[in-house]
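Lab notebook, design round three. We kept the backbone fixed and only want residue identities now. Task for the bench partner: fill in a sequence for the structure below.
Input structure tokens:
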């Protein structure tokens, strides 16, 4: 009989139909495939997976070590920065003290120089005043001698002499004021 004579229902097998020959050959092929995979592929696949797992683990360990090292370096840098800031603050404090000491020294020196200049000025003023007094005394003596000479020349009486001397002294006071 030809397959066409049986009709369309025999030729078309459904998805849910069981074909015993096909099932047996599929099972045999599956078992052979499992054997071949286990024999030739399973070992290399597992060794590749194990190798990959080992490299990932080593990379994680290396990353962990590097992270710890980076944290250690960061802590050292923070410590170094804090130390540098303390040193800078100490240097600034010392500089401020030195500047203050220099300011006080310069102020004291300026006061000392000002006092010395003032003392020198007072001394010079005193000398000038003494010289002026000496000159004034000399002029007064000269004027007194001149007045005496005029009195002698005039040979005046006592009242006239007194008036003449008083007039002369008032002239001296007027000249001194001017």
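Proposed sequence:
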């Amino acid at each position: 009989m030809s397959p066409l004579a049986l009709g369309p229902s025999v030729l078309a097998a459904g998805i849910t139909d069981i074909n015993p020959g096909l099932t047996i050959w599929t099972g045999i092929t599956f078992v052979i495939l499992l054997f071949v995979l286990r024999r030739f592929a399973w070992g290399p696949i597992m060794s590749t997976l194990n190798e990959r797992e080992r490299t990932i683990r080593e990379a994680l360990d290396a990353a962990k070590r590097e992270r710890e090292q980076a944290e250690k370096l960061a802590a050292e840098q923070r410590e170094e920065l804090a130390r540098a800031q303390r040193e800078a603050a100490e240097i600034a404090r010392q500089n401020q003290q030195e500047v203050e000491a220099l300011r006080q020294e310069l102020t004291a020196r300026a006061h000392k120089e000002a006092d010395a200049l003032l003392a020198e000025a007072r001394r010079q003023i005193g000398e000038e005043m003494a010289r002026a007094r000496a000159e004034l005394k000399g002029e007064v003596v000269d004027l007194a001698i001149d007045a005496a000479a005029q009195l002698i020349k005039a040979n005046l009486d006592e009242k006239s002499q007194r008036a003449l001397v008083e007039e002369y002294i008032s002239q001296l006071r007027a000249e001194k004021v001017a």
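Keep this in mind before ordering anything: Residues 20-154 form the longest helix (135 residues).
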